[in-house]
């Protein structure tokens, strides 16, 4: 019988030495035979004592010498018979590691004759010398320095089959100068454990490795020992999600959905087999849950290999599936990540794959997308901003700048637009396009918008009080449509105007065209109430949205702000010194329409004197842009009001 090691001995199997003391009373001249117990095997060397120290001695009267001799012989024969007949395979091994005697159970287990076991090296019979740790522990037991050794070994039977055995080595009392080796066949238990592990590590629907096994393999692949000695040292992952699978479950039921998942798993496995052809190992295909699958490529050769695998998967899934008489079609979105194994972790790799899968779906589905570090950095920045936006409002990290709205005829400042800035402690000063969308998504736009409105009205009132000889200027504040839905905007405006003392006609609220056009119910009622209060309503970026001119006449709007894309077309060409005639026709028509509806018009993005001249000629009321001033702090607006700084006309 030969054996192979199954690895290092578990720490729990190396029991610390137990002290065994011999009795203080003299022993009989005859040596007792070992007493064998299948659990705590030991040898009883006690003989008749001169002093009774046990309950047995107290209960029994003194025996004659011949009677004692016959009793010892009877016990010897009894223990020998028990040792021979024991169902547990056992052998007594001397301190040199040689078998003294073995029972029939051990002979049958090892497929050898009982007589042939005596004198054999026990470590060879049960494979105790195949690894250094087990061999050392075994020698310590033989020397009496360790109480017990227990280990698991895979032994090969002479008839060719293998079996798993649990080997226990226990010392006998010191005077015996031997140890007891017991061997238990645990093959059935190991087989059951293997079956249970397979069930635990595989998906019951597709029979693919599940999330637990996938992460076990991934973690093992990222260990330094896995790639330092051989291989490319790289790892790749295709993380895919089926597009529209939920509709299959909802309409045809989970039974059909499970069969579809099984069919998808078969195609993915074929793709992995083809990709692994002529390579050391094929990709691992796993179902991570729901309709999510992963293909793990160890020792990848670069992004090209992962890209080819992703393309083959998309191609394989294009053909319809025939499921229980139903002809079904599905596609997949795939996130692809490939990098050095030493530069990543399982968590980082999966985060990158999940992010890239999201990009693939956002880009239109039925496609694969490669991880982009720059795009991910932008996403991480966006996430960082989103998580700190609400606290930033409470910490006072926001400030306002103001850009003048100038009369086209005389160049006088008619009003200012309040523009919010975020003085972020990490990213510096951020303009609204960096965070307003985030604020609208998480609802913090209500809190931020209320602060902007209050700060702008307070500043407009301060200008009015500081410059009583100058006609008061109005302040224009941008309002998101979510502010109308998620808060009582009318009540907020009324309270702020009352608190600051600003007249309603000196406040202008700007809403985008897409937010205003088609408004009904609460938004329209709120706009009407604000207009009735005296607040001016302006449509921002007019001309880029729905442009529902018929609906425009029914809205309580007083100002149109032309989008800058129209105004930019007014720049003169260097050759010929002429403007684009189409842009001029469109803008002139919009201005005339607005005037006929009783509205005033503001042109955005006025940057050159030529633009201002043409806008003035076709009747535009006010202009806003860098020609007049960039957004500035409040004290610069005070200088404009007093004439210290005059905007260009």
UniProtKB/TrEMBL annotation:
The EAL domain, residue ranges:
382-645
Gene3D superfamilies for the chain: 3.30.70.270, EAL domain (3.20.20.450), PAS domain (3.30.450.20)
User: Which stretches are tagged as biased composition: Basic and acidic residues?
Assistant: 57-71
Task: Spell out the SUPFAM superfamilies in the cross-references.
Answer: EAL domain-like, Nucleotide cyclase, PYP-like sensor domain (PAS domain)
> Where in the numbering of this chain does the GGDEF domain appear?
233-373
User: Where is the region Disordered?
Assistant: 1-71
Highest rank taxon of the organism: Bacteria
| Every PAS domain range | 75-145
Q: What is this protein called?
A: EAL domain-containing protein
Annotated source species: Streptomyces vastus
């Amino acid at each position: 019988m030969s054996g192979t090691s199954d690895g290092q001995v578990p720490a729990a199997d190396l029991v610390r030495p137990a002290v065994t003391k011999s009795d203080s009373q003299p022993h009989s001249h005859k040596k007792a035979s070992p007493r064998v117990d299948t659990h705590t095997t030991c040898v009883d060397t006690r003989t008749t004592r001169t002093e009774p120290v046990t309950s047995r001695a107290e209960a029994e009267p003194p025996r004659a010498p011949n009677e004692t001799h016959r009793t010892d012989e009877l016990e010897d024969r009894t223990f020998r018979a028990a040792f021979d007949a024991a169902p547990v395979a056992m052998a007594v091994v001397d301190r040199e590691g040689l078998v003294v005697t073995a029972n029939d159970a051990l002979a049958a287990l090892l497929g050898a004759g009982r007589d042939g076991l005596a004198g054999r090296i026990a470590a060879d019979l049960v494979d105790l010398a195949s690894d250094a740790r087990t061999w050392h522990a075994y020698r310590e037991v033989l020397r009496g320095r360790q109480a017990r050794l227990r280990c698991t070994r895979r032994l090969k039977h002479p008839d060719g089959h293998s079996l798993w055995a649990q080997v226990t080595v226990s010392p006998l009392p010191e005077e015996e100068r031997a140890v007891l080796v017991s061997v238990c066949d645990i093959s059935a238990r190991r087989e059951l454990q293997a079956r249970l592990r397979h069930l635990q590590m595989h998906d019951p629907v597709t029979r693919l490795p599940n999330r637990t096994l996938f992460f076990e393999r991934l973690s093992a692949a990222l260990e330094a020992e896995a790639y330092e000695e051989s291989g490319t040292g790289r790892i790749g992952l295709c993380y895919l999600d089926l597009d529209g699978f939920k509709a299959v479950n909802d309409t045809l039921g989970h039974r059909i959905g499970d069969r579809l998942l099984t069919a998808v798993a078969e195609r993915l496995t074929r793709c992995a087999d083809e990709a692994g052809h002529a390579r050391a190992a094929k990709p691992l295909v796993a179902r991570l849950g729901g309709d999510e699958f992963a293909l793990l490529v160890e020792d990848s050769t670069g992004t090209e290999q992962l890209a080819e695998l992703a393309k083959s998967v998309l191609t394989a899934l294009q053909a319809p599936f025939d499921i229980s008489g139903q002809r079904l079609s599905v596609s997949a979105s795939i996130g692809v990540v490939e990098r050095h194994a030493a530069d990543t972790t399982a968590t980082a790799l999966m985060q990158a794959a999940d992010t890239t899968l999201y990009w693939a779906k956002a880009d239109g589905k039925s496609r694969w997308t490669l991880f982009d570090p720059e795009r991910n950095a932008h996403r991480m920045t966006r996430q960082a901003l989103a998580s700190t936006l609400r606290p930033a409002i409470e910490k006072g990290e926001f400030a306002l700048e103001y850009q003048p709205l100038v009369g086209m005829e005389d160049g006088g400042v008619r009003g200012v637009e309040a523009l919010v800035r975020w003085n972020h402690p990490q990213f510096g000063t951020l303009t609204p396009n960096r965070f307003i969308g985030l604020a609208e998504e998480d609802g913090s736009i209500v809190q931020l918008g209320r602060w902007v409105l209050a700060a702008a009205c307070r500043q407009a009132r301060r200008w009015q009080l500081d410059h009583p000889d100058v006609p008061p200027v109005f302040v224009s504040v941008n309002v998101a449509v979510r502010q109308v839905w998620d808060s009582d905007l009318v009540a907020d405006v009324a309270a702020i105007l009352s608190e600051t003392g600003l007249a309603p006609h000196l406040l202008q609220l700007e809403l985008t065209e897409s937010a205003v056009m088609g408004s009904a119910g609460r938004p329209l009622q709120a706009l009407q109430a604000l207009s009735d209060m005296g607040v001016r309503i302006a449509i921002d970026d007019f001309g880029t949205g729905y442009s529902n001119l018929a609906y425009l006449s029914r809205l309580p709007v007083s100002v149109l702000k032309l989008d800058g894309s129209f105004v930019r077309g007014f720049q003169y060409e260097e050759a010929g010194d002429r403007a684009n005639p189409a842009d001029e026709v469109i803008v002139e028509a919009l201005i005339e329409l607005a005037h006929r509806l009783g509205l005033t018009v503001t042109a955005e993005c006025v940057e050159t004197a030529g633009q201002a001249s043409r806008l003035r000629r076709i009747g535009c009321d006010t202009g806003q842009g860098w020609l007049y001033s960039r957004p500035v702090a409040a004290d610069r607006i005070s200088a404009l009001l007093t004439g210290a700084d005059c905007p260009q006309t």
